[in-house]
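Protein chain data
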Amino acid sequence: MQLFRFEIETNERSVHVVVVAEDEESAFATAELEVEKNFLKLPTISSITLLEKKPVRKSAGFVVE
């Protein structure tokens, strides 16, 4: 398992999303679904950028600014 940090650009703003997934393909799909679930009106996603990935260990995390 890997911990992925994404920056997602929508038509309104930029959001950061952190997901846990087995591989990059499922991580991108999960990140997109998380954005769709957290907005009342479905945003138009212009880009998804993988910023960082780390193996999940006993403890792992990201600093999100």
Summary: The chain is about 20% helix and 45% strand. Strands lie at 2-10, 14-21, 45-55. The two ends are 24 Å apart (CA to CA). The CA atoms of residues 15 and 36 lie 12 Å apart.
